[in-house]
Amino acid sequence: MALAPLAAELKVLLALLRGQPSRGSHAERLEAFYAPQAGRYDAFRERLLHGRGELIADLIAARAVPPGAHLVELGAGTGRNLLFFGERLAALGQVDAVDLCPALVGEARRRTEAMPNVQVHEADACRWRPEAPVDAVYLAYALTMIPDWEAAIDNAIAMLKPGGHLGVVDFYVSAPEPAPGLVRHSALARAFWPRWFRHDGVHLDARRLADLREHLPAHQLTEALAPVPYLPGLRVPYYRFIGRKDG
After folding, report:
1. I need a labelling partner for 60 at 20 to 30 A (CA). Which of 109, 136, 164, 192 fits?
2. How far apart are CA 218 and CA 197, in angstroms?
């Protein structure tokens, strides 16, 4: 690795080791944590945040985002996930990318400034609403970072049109006794991963996935494991969820 990328990588690792501050508002904690690493944010997380491209492919396969559709990403960060749509992005009618962290919003605005159908909002995913119901909403590794995650799920579903789709990809751990047909993680995994991620403001448990399945019974779910940078041999659980709103 060249010296400049290595230095940037070390800056991200240092931020991760320091963790997210425990004081201040949610927006202030996010800014303090992400501002020093915003420029290297995407490159490091390409190796950590798996399944994002597959989630977008799932939305496309479900016909959730046809040409002219209105799409919302909550917890959009730097806007990197929009690039997984490729040429399809330009065919969408309107795209709203919402994030609470000013440093990441600035990166997203720079990335999307040549995309006329994309608007970036510095706002709370629990409260921001579009002017009219939308075709699809998704969150990629954002739900575990939102303190009031139940409000974020409720808000996402509320802004969907009848028949609209909600997509989520995120880390998690299973319940000790998961619902029939779902993966059961070991007691060690259920103890280790929540503690390891909590230091950086990421909160893993089984409740978010259970809440999504309860709110949107018509859904498809994929559970998987992914490698973690600098932790050889360890694989973190994550899921992809696509749910359809009644109507």
Report:
1. 109
2. 30
